[in-house]
Predict the structure.
Amino acid sequence: MPIVKEKFKREKHVYRNEKFSELLLDAVRFFHGTPVLPLPPEEPFKGAGVYAIYCIARTGIYKTFGETINRKSYSVPIYVGKAVPTGWRQNRNIGSENNTTLFNRLRQHAESIKAGKGLNLADFACRFAILEGETANMVAALEAAIIAEHSPLWNSVIDGFGNHDPGKRRVTGKRPQWDCLHPGRPWAMRMSGEAFSVPELKRRVTDYLMGVKCTR
């Protein structure tokens, strides 16, 4: 019997579930209630999940974070990301409790900040939520929800902080915006492609911080 092709009706393809929305909101609330720790955390730990990095600098181009935005509490992250184990896309629940993926990612970010010009690692802290078992399936959704909530600077305005070394084959590529503004990561310094305008990147930072400051 031949397959019958139906006429497209959008309503037959739309999935909604209020329970999922409530669960995601609960996860966001839990995330914001987790303790804030140094970057990187002092002790290694196992697990994968979602994290946020906060800036409390009182000098330099990010001083508005320390002087105003995050002066009383860690309110607005400068970057949000996720850390998942190898093979997560193929089978998300295997191995998520038996690796140090999240800790390693935070440690990598700390090294990037240490290498970046104009940054002081002591001006940064982090919080994170470890998602295990079935809740590991929510990693991407939780990350997206927190990014949408805050539009973190290094996610939305200055791109490239979370980039990995692209390898020797891409040394002719364009240096990420973050590395143009904060040069120092060895792999990025080797990239010979056209660089972004530093004055323009600084203007974007100023405009962003002014916008956040005005909404508080």
Q: What stands out?
A: The radius of gyration is 20 Å. The chain has one domain: 29-214. DSSP finds eight helices and four strands in the chain.
